[in-house]
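Researcher: For the record, we're logging two predictions in this thread. I'll number them. Prediction 1 follows.
Model: Prediction 1, sequence and structure:
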Amino acid sequence: QVQLVESGGGLVQAGGSLRLSCAASGIIFSNNRMGWYRQAPGKQREFVAFIRSNSGAVYADSVLGRFTISRDNAKNTVYLQMNSLKPEDTTVYYCKTYAPEYWGKGTLVTVSS
């Protein structure tokens, strides 16, 4: 059974930082592309970043230069380091595996102005 469990969300002031974690089980983590997405109420889920098995990463323009995705294959965990946070980054962040496709339940990030 595949499980993705996100953690690290919370309340932070604008300009601050948070690090999200996603612990995976039930998959061959090291072979899997892992991604972060986010979804605000009433809006479509949007891509934030993904990291390939070789640690190559791709970012959405909206977070490029502020967010960094990384992975620790020994811990089956993917991270999202978020710096210079803005109020518009406030939403629920979800972890995703691509093959097979699974989603975590999300973690809420709130950035106050």
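Researcher: Logged. Prediction 2.
Model: Prediction 2, sequence and structure:
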Amino acid sequence: QLQASGGGSVQAGGSLRLSCAVSGLNFRLYACGWYRQPPGKQRELVARIASNGVTNYAEAMTGRFTISRDNVRRTVDLQMNSLKAEDTAVYYCNVGQQWGQGTLVTVSS
């Protein structure tokens, strides 16, 4: 199971940190990711982190967002800085074939 937390409302330029707690998987073996679905749009990749810690980001998030993982705590986090109104979306964590329930991030301009 994946349990996401940390969403909320923030003004443009602000920061939020999302966290996803993972249970029921051999967590350290899996790549993890954060995806988002803006209102009226399809789900899209935000960032992924491989089991060896290698990261990749969607171009629009590069330099603003940081994905990290803690194999002991079994969490994958997304630090989001310099948030923009267009970052407003429901954010989902993904590990293997499993998805979290989504957490809403609203950025007001």
